[in-house]
Amino acid sequence: MAPLSAASKLAIERLRAYVPPPDILSSSGVEVPGQAALPGGKVDFEGETPFQTARREAFEEIGLALLDQELPPPLCIEHLCELPLYLARTEVVVCPCVALLHAGAACRASALDIFVPRLDPNEVSALFTAPFHQFLQRSGGAPLSPELQPPKGAEWYEGRLASWHGLHFHMHSFQVPLAGQRVTTAVIEEEEEQDSGRLPAPLAGGEEAPVASYRVFGMTARIVLDAARLAYGEAPDFEHEEYFGDEELISKLVSCGALAKEQGKAETNKL
Q1: What is the pLDDT of residues 161-186, one digit of tens each?
Q2: Which runs of E-coded beta strand occur in 165-258?
């Protein structure tokens, strides 16, 4: 694959070495539609591990091969770590899995050049990439070209204070510009093939222009932000919680009966 920078290599090593706190809740869950999210869903059977669930859901949603299936050579997936449990506003408990999709050191091509997503239009409207390290920056970093800037009127990062179950915390929102990123859109018609690659040019006449950015917010933003904090060993340049995950809040809600142990646990896969 294309040579990794020293910072990227160190980020991968940090994620490999990360060990989350003990799991305090184990059950099944549901997904929340209508927002940018990581592939994920509920446990199918008792004993299914978070990574097994994450891979199965990634297969169902974006066409990534199952654990017992071979990937197109030279692609391979390394399970790096699991993050602490998170609690969505829908009171679904989520265990994020972090994995690395790569094409091996001998391959000059990027894994993204080889992997062909197959999106389920009933669950996923589009799959897109985003610059990982920039989730630690209020400004989104210095873009390579003007087209990488967020669309006019949209800030890369917005944050605000919120409260829930007596806990005060920061809500994060990132506006990811799609120009210059990899984007695959789902096709509803079965006879049509997936539209893969970069965003099309703006449409002429009265037709609707393509989406210029996707908003990553809520629990998804927290998961990506925390994964970046762990990977790069850096704090973001905006206000945030020092802890990772919602283990203490989940334990508190379970102990007082506000969150049943049977509440959902969705497994997500960050590639």
Answers
A1: 998 877 888 999 999 888 878 888 88
A2: 167-177, 183-185, 195-197, 213-217
